[in-house]
Amino acid sequence: MQQVQELVNRIQEDFKAGRLKVPSLPEVAININRYVGDPDANIVNMAKVIQMDPALAAKLVQVANSALYAHHGSVDDCRTAVARLGMNTTRNLVMSFALRQSFQIGSAIVRDIARSTWNKSSEVAAISYVLARVTMGMVPDRALLAGLVHNIGAIPILRYAADYPELKKNRILINDLIQRLAQQLGSLVLRQWSFDSELVAVPQQIDNHNYAADQEADYVDLAIVANMHSQFGKEGEDRPVLHEVASFRKLPLFRIGPDASIELLYEAREEINAMTRMLMSAA
Q: Which CATH superfamily is domain 2-280 in?
């Protein structure tokens, strides 16, 4: 336990001093994120940027041909994939794949925890995507990204744990650190990666069941509700009833009835599973 407190203190000190170990996003993800905001951006040039990373380009073609996006035959090149997906969806997917790479960390146990953390984030992302489709004004691919980053604060913790020979072998202690620090660190990671303020708020607010109760629904709300759904049927601490949570009460589904989101997600279970598998396999 002394080791855990030592690591907590070290992380918090580095956090305050601006020395926190935060991995860099792949250059192609940084370039694409900036590129979408360029008034001169176009599909051809965007595809050229993506093709600088052949593995990423291949993954994007695979996604464009998946059941989630394939509506008019198959595509076999990056430019056509970007044209089918659109530039904003492409940007969000590229960022999603880049996030997956950030979870490839350390020793066997650390990698296993990282993989489990990413898999859970993928499930929350897939649920967020489906909820966004029935929420006016929400873009599903952005909701997907919001779900993926809800526990991004685990990354610096896992990187620190990998430097401690005894700690990196102790699954329980590492998970305890993630539980205690991930929300605090997640927003810092996203700020360093130049994510916008709404997505930066997701890690800090993910367990806030009274989040912005008097405001309109936003992507933080979708992530909160999706995270709650991902926990249904699993052991853990007592959780509030869904229809009493502020974020759920702001969604159109609430007006239909307290079980509306459960029914929606049950009907979309195959799509959610397919999307979760796609994100889990992203590399």
A: Hypothetical protein af1432 (1.10.3210.10)
